Amino acid sequence: MDKRKEANLHVKNSIVGALIDLMQEKNFESITVSEITTRAGVSRVSYYRNFDSKEDILTGSLRDLMDCFSEKISVLPGHTPTRRVMTAFFHVARENAAIFNLLHQAGMDDQIQESLDQFILSCPHFPSLDRRRTYPAYLFSGALFRLLIRWYSRGMTENDSELSNIFCQYMDGLL
User: How far apart are CA 140 and CA 122, in angstroms?
Assistant: First the structure.
């Protein structure tokens, strides 16, 4: 990667990190661009070169989170059992709990749910949950979203495999 791209990536990561830090101190709506740039140690010009708004930062973080899910699942063979696919999913969810919780706290539940819907509809490991059977896919996705929120709020006490077993036990009829 050339030095300019590397420097810009550092700026973007600094801005995202600053927003994450600030969201642990105060609510999303009350955070200003000035606070973000000061915390990140970057100029407003650098901020606006990379992001249009605070929401844009979160949208990018959500996109990155969904990319992590897709990357982890895409390396699994097509015949992988659903429980193993979901265990891999919950592993990524555990690793990214802070980002998910911040998106949830920022009121981005609709965007998270829509992203999960698209993930489930496009995932080759769930062939019975495709665009021809949208209601089961949305049931699956909605249950997954609510389970994630509950799991995070309870401190993720179940390991990835246990949570996968719980989820799949109730979702077997859809798959």
Answer: 13
Backbone dihedral region for residue 56 (phi beyond 0: left; psi -120 to 50: alpha; all else: beta): alpha
- Residue environment code for 87-96, b if the CB has 16+ CB neighbours within 10 A, otherwise e: bbbbbbbbeb
pLDDT at position 163 over 80:
yes
What would the two tokens of residue 144 be? Answer: 């997954």
**Contact by Cβ (8 Å): 92, 13:** no
Domains in the chain: boundaries: 1-51, 54-174
Which tokens sit at 117?
A: 């819907």
The pLDDT of 129-133, averaged and rounded, is: 67
Band of residue 175 on the pLDDT scale cut at 50, 70, 90:
low
Instruction: Output the CATH code of domain 1-51.
Output: 1.10.10.60
